[in-house]
Amino acid sequence: MTHFPPGLYVVATPIGNLNDLSARASETLVAAEVVAAEDTRTSGVIVKRVGSKARLVSLTEHNVEARTPGLLEAAKTGVVALVSDAGTPGVADPGARLVEAAHEAGVAVFAVAGPSALAAAVSVSGMAGSDVYFLGFLPRKSGERRRRLESAASVAAVLVLFESPNRVSSTLEDIAATLGDPVVTVCRELTKLHEEVVRGRASALAERFAHPRGEFTIVVQSPEQQEGDIAEVAAYLGEMKRAGAQRSLAVGEAVRRYGVARDQAYNAWPADGTS
After folding, report:
1. Strand order across the 216-221 sheet
2. Across the chain, what does the average pLDDT equal?
3. Structure pTM?
4. How far apart (Å, rounded) are the C-alpha atoms in residues 239 and 229?
5. Is 154 domain-assigned?
6. DSSP codes, 256-268
7. Are residues 141 and 204 in the same domain?
8. Average pLDDT for residues 150-164, to the nearest whole number?
9. How far is the CA of 115 from the CAs of 71, 89, 160, 206, in angstroms?
10. Closest CA relative to residue 101, chosen from 133, 137, 135, 59
11. Would 272 be classed as within a structural domain?
12. Long-range CB contacts (< 8 A, 24+ apart) of 247-250?
């Protein structure tokens, strides 16, 4: 039987298909005295399935500060398992704050690796490269989303983000407008019964997923960051400005057309008062 020293165990759980729970994760949950979970109802299904007698404790954005001291005290002498609603804890959930506190308190932290929507989406996207930037959930407002996308695209070749079904279409529209309508891979309901992985231009997929259901992970191929003729770019942007084009749209088109870096194109936008 596996020996589990006292500590905090960060346990990855299935993102959809329950058969993806590893044997080691099952053993850890059975050995745990306490399981900290975002939603105890969701995680309770898995805990019961493996036959664990652990006490379930909710750990949310609202109570993480209050619950952390007790969980760390338990982890000093026994096994405390941290799980998320689905996938690997610490990725876009409050678990990261518990892990940080454990390190600061000198509590041992162990990784029980397994399913991750982030890794799964990249693996099926067909977008090669190790330069991946994870954005989590983007802001709700379009203007803030576009600024976040512009900033991320200037430093990474592949962007990965999570999105809710009620905003996925508008987010894809913002990706198209801001990044020159790049190729994206939209992953819906990964590993679940109605799993769907679709690759295409952001604008086309915005129409396709206008009224969707399920959970989404989007992988974006950033425009290539290449040196271009900045004089030509400046001239093009000058024409676009005189025509009344929006700066973000014109910059996105310049990136696509001339293959320059986004920050180069952005800085080449004519200042007020210039022709």
Report:
1. 132-137, 158-163, 216-221, 183-188, 196-201
2. 91
3. 0.79
4. 16
5. yes
6. HHH-B-HHHHHHT
7. yes
8. 91
9. 24, 10, 16, 27
10. 59
11. no
12. 248/146, 248/150, 248/177, 248/178, 249/177
Residues 25 and 98 in one domain: yes
How many beta carbons lie within 10 A of that of residue 212, not counting itself? Answer: 18
Residues paired with residue 226 on neighbouring β-strands, in sequence order? 260
- 70-91: buried (b, 16+ CB within 10 Å) or exposed (e) per residue? ebbebbeebbbbbbbebbbbbb
* Residue range 75-113, pLDDT digits in tens: 999 999 999 999 999 887 889 999 999 999 999 999 999
3-state helix, strand, coil in the chain (%, to 5): 40, 20, 35
Query: Token pair of 237, please?
Result: 């942007």
DSSP 83-133: E-SSBSTTSSSTHHHHHHHHHHHT--EEEE----HHHHHHHHHT---S-EE
Tell me the residue range of the domain where 53 lies: 7-115
User: Over the Cα atoms of the chain, what is R_g?
Assistant: 22
